[in-house]
Structures are given as C-alpha cells and as structure tokens.
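Researcher: Structure prediction, please.
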Amino acid sequence: MKLISWNVNGLRAVLKKNFLDYLKEESPDVLCLQETKCWPDQVEPVWEGDGGYETHWNWAEKKGYSGTAILTREKPLNVTRGIGIAEHDREGRVLTAEYPGFFLVNVYVPNSQRELTRLAYRQQWDRDFLAYLQGLDAKKPVVWCGDLNVAHTELDLTNPKANVKNHGFTPEERSGFDAVVKAGFVDTFREFEKEGGNYTWWSPMGGARKRNVGWRIDYFLVSARLRPALQSAVIRPSILGSDHCPVGIELESKPSPAAKARRTK
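Model: Predicted structure follows.
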C-alpha cells in the first residue's frame, strides 16, 4: 500500500501546475494533503470518478488558511475531523481515516511563528495531539503524516547551529518530537536513511531549493508494531509546485512471518 503526504501550499494553486500529472505518475493508494487553503466547494475534484479517488476534507473556519484533505482509493471505515478539542479544531489541521489494519492521521501542525509568538500554544498542541495519537494506538496501529513544522535533529536541516533559537528548531519543539519517539512512534525515513542532506521544505528566497539549503519537516511516523510491514520510505525533492515536496511510504498489507523476521533483525 503506497501512502503519500504533501503540503501543497494551496491546492487551487498547485492544480494549475503539476498536481494532476504528479498524481497520475505517483499513483498512490492514499494521498494526504496539508495547507489546502480552500473549502471543498472552491475546488473541482477532477481526480474523482471511475478508477479515481474519493476525497475527505477538513477545512479551517477562516477561508484561504490551513486545511487538510485525504484522497483515497480504498473507502475508509470511518473518517473524523479534528482531535476533539475546540481550541485546536478551528483550523482544519487534523483528519483521521480508519482502515481495517490501522488509523491514518493526516496533520498540519501549527507553526510557532517567526517571533515564537505561538510557541506556548504549539507546546500545548504537541501534548494534546500526542495524547490523541496514543488513544488511537490503544485501539489499533497508527500511521500519521504531514507537515510537522519541526526539524527533529541536526541532520534534518542545513544550518542547525544558526537556527537553534528559530521557529521549527527550538529545544521546545524538538522535545515535542522526542516525546513522540519515546511514546513508540517510528520516524520511517530514518529507518532507511541515516545521513543528512534530505529535505522536504526550502525557502523560496535566495535559490535555496536549487542549492538544497533546506529542512526536513514533513514526515511519516508509524506505531512500532507496524515496523515489520514497512517496505520503503521516500522523499520526492524533484516534484515541484510547492515549497514542500511529497514524502511517502509503502506498507505490506499483511506482512508474512518471513518478512517480519527479516525486518526485525
């Protein structure tokens, strides 16, 4: 099962670029979008129809801001919006689809803002969102993905020393990611790639993307017990259209005992 996540920084904008071509070429089973910046009635879902995808939305109360969507070929058992806390659920940041073998959580984590004006809120979000994930994980395994707005380690951005006090790399935000790992969730990309230089977001200024001066802030994480089913994890830096690029994983639907043994060695 191929799952892809992409912060499109405006679905209406990327639809005018390469979105449909990319969707056809990548052909994921599920595509999670963040920062859609639209309400469903503002977009024609041309990817739907015979052989296509059904779409589930969570939009912000404020038009043109935030928002998430899931395009899926397999009909979910259930879809829910938000995490059940009004303070967090006004901006359309979380969309959860339940499948037979796992919950899929698509998230666009709040940015702490340049002057760290939203850092305290971000810390509360991290605690509440982790509690939400743990509640799901108690029922069945969880796959979660999206723009987490944090580079976890120094490997995950080009200039770590210069950014220690900047939003996206503060000790507080990184500690929030540490708590996720401690809770048993696996950073899928790091299971396959231990080196730096692999980024998912680049500033639009100064030719940063061309020079690969970037940050890895888009992730797929899975419950530890799904690790035997994890076949690959990828970053697609060649896919343009947004200041972020897509990231993805492939999961075996039902890993064989041999596969489990092989991947846990």
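Model: The helical segments are 11-15, 19-26, 119-137, 171-182, 208-211, 257-264.
Researcher: Thanks, that helps.
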